[in-house]
Amino acid sequence: MNERTLRRILSDLPLGGVRFFNQIGSTNDVALAWASEGAADLALVVADEQTAGRGRVGRSWITPAGSALACSLVLRPAVEEGESIALYSALGALAVVSALEEKYGLKPEIKWPNDVLVRGRKLCGILAETVWLGSQAESVVLGIGLNVRAEAVPAVESLDFPAISLETATGLSVKRVALLHDILTALIAWRPRLGSGEFIQAWEARLAYRGEQVQVWAEGQPIQVGQVEGLDSDGSLRMRSPQGEIFSVRFGEVHLRPVV
Ligand code: BTN
Fold first, then answer.
1. H/E run at residue 205
2. The model scores a pTM over 0.85
């Protein structure tokens, strides 16, 4: 990835600045540090390679050089977005899905809360980290990791969920900067609708495993099994227990797996 091309291609977007690294530990860490120094809304950190990328629930995220999209966006929640902080990660997923549908003709799904799947395999993960000042969200760092080339997909034995790359899924050669531009464009377009009925419906329409049995659990908590019904208006996952009772799973450090 070339910094000059990156800056040129992204120049029509209202970003709050761009920082590019050939190699960095984690773009989320850099974005969190930048946010603490006063980074503007939509400040963007991009890396060609991450050596200490982080995933959800304490997992690591591997980004070999030249193979993936690894970026983090600093968001400064506006007052009216304050109620919807938990939905920023879904905003990231919806932006990725919109770009993939529009530009690559794929039919991606969102494994609740925010993994992007293609053909049942994980293509992209999102890590949203919020910095709180009392009860006010001062900033949210939205990290996006997307497997572009096959080399980005870790060895099967190290995966706890099957993965795929965009080039494998499409059979095309993918330009990472153009892909990033499309994702950011979609994110900027969806953001004013964060938490709206339209937003939740768009997310629900792409929800993976609808009507299927899944198991859901948080670390150290019992596993809940049920059928995926859809989303509540706040983005919680609505499920039906084997006894026919409807229950909702709230956001958090939650794992979800299909029951096979
Ligand atoms: C997950 O599925 O567990 C979330 C993975 C998020 C990875 C991205 S890569 C860019 C950004 N920087 C990080 O350290 N993590 C996120």
1. helix 197-205
2. yes
